[in-house]
Structure prediction request, 303 residues.
Amino acid sequence: MLQASFYSDTIKKRNRRNCCRIKEENVYIPELLKEKRTISFEVFPPKNDKPLEPLMETLRHLYGLDPDFLSVTYGAGGTNAGRATTICNSIAKSGNTVMAHFTCIGLDTEEVKSAIDEFRTAGVQNLLLLRGDLPEGWTGTRGSFDNATELIRSVREVASDMAISAAAYPETHLESDPEQGIEILKEKQDLGVSFFMTQLCYDVDAFACFLEKAQKAGVTAPMVVGVMPVLKAESTIKMTLSNGCSIPADVARLIGRWDKSPEDFRKAGKEYTLQLIERFKNAGADGIHLYTLNKYEDVVDLV
Ligand code: FAD
Prediction:
């Protein structure tokens, strides 16, 4: 794992090169996680035929909430790679810390190397390395890497100046089982992953149990919990079920009670999300990552 002195030396070199305006310190998320429980936001690039400005407007509002970092998702297969890099660059230039998601679906080794170079040029110093969801009908990635573990091993070689994180699944990845899931986390940590970020989860007990098992297996890297704010009944149901996650009784009650009244649901859902965040903190979350879905209005009430 990279050491603090290495990070600060690299930051100084970066600043000398002045490739873009970045924070003077604490641009490596693992360093932030040593100091505090982080709060961060996730945005996604709009489709290529949609304007970027609404997202830029959202970002300006999100910066005002003083997040520890912002992450930018990546379309598996690289469909929106250019936009992801542009958005990362814009965040880095604003003086905020950025983490780029990156998936290996359909990419060969050379394409991965050049994508990492582009992220670096854009001012990215934190990467969340993923396999990506396989498009319908695919049985493999159709690229040089079968899974995120292989991607991490390879990227580690060409990006020793970047902090690397990986995904974790408190309620188990759909294609995996709980034991294998934890073994894979340990393997990724041994390869240099310096923190994990979880899939959305509403079951705090399941998270606590997962964290305990992971720690017993030697997974000591910080665990940042991904929180999808409960704002719409339909999307809450869709996102949980499509990711194989449970809908706990308290969320089911919200849906049953307020399903026909979107505004009441949103209000009750925000209250619930605030309590959920507190419960995750008490259960040992090292950071809270809000899936903001390119919106800022409701986020303001959650931080
Ligand atoms: P992997 O770790 O590769 O796991 C996938 C399968 O491979 C599992 O069955 C696992 O058991 C197996 N596997 C992994 N390593 C090994 C090994 N060493 N030996 C044997 N089997 C192995 N998707 C996007 O397309 N874009 C995004 O921006 C994005 N961001 C995400 C952010 C977070 C926080 C999370 C949790 C997910 C995100 N995803 C994103 C979704 C993610 O790509 C999918 O969940 C995907 O199905 C799995 O990704 P992974 O990196 O966990 O895969």
Q: What stands out?
A: The pocket of flavin-adenine dinucleotide is lined by residues 73-74, 76, 101, 103, 128, 130-133, 147-149, 167, 173, 175-176, 180, 184, 187, 197, 199, 226 (CB under 6 Å).
